[in-house]
Amino acid sequence: MTDSQLKEDKNMGTEMGTEIGTEVKQADNASGIIESGQPVFQAKDFNLWYADNHALQNINLTFSENEISAIIGPSGCGKSTFIKALNRMVELVPIVRTEGHILYRGDNIFDKKMTVEELRTKVGMVFQNPNPFPKSIYDNVAYGARVHGIKKKKILDQIVEKSLRGAAIWDEVKDRLNQNAYGLSGGQQQRVCIARALAIEPDVILMDEPTSALDPISTTKIEDLIQQLSKDYSIVVVTHNMQQAARVSDKTAFFYQGYVVEHDDTSAIFENPKDKRTEDYVSGRFG
Ligand SMILES: Nc1ncnc2c1ncn2[C@@H]1O[C@H](COP(=O)(O)OP(=O)(O)O)[C@@H](O)[C@H]1O
Ligand SMILES: [Mg+2]
Question: Using one digit for the tens of pLDDT, what is the confidence trace for 113-139?
Answer without folding.
Answer: 899 999 999 999 999 999 999 999 999
